[in-house]
Amino acid sequence: MGLNEWFNKGLTPEQYMETLDKHKEAFHHIYENFNIENDESFLNQLKDKNVRAVVLAEPWCGHCMLNIPVLLRLSEKTNMPVKFLLRDENLELMDQYLTNGKSRTIPIMIFINDNGEEIAKWGPISDKTKQFVDELKKDLPPKETEEYDAKFKELIAITGKEFKENANLWHGAYASIKETLSKI
Fold first, then answer.
1. What is the pTM of this model?
2. Tell me, which fold does domain 3-182 have in CATH?
């Protein structure tokens, strides 16, 4: 199946947001509070390119909660159609976009032209988010220890709170997506 067919099969942003459960409040908080300002030159250039996006995501994913509201604000400013495919129901496509050739980490944003050809790919996280998470992970005990599960749950709670509240992470995601799209 080509990327046009995957795009046509996808959920609209509204349909995707209806699937949200665990991260619904945080997702909407980011969506309502993230704004793109003073970037008209880039936004106009992107509008002229008629880009569409196919996004592999899941409603339970913290990285999706952080990055997708940013993409949706960008899509609104540029009239970029966006469709969502749930990763676990679309492994045939997901397995073509593995992180480091082995991991099904999401979100993956596949940007396509009018012909359905891939013109750019972004995901799963920005460098700013990776640095933040890596800094927290360095204090985790080894996986085989008794305290790992409890410490990992603490890490998830901290990252979820920061993803929701830290506008620097939102703007880091935007800058990273913008950098990718500036090259098309």
1. 0.96
2. Glutaredoxin (3.40.30)
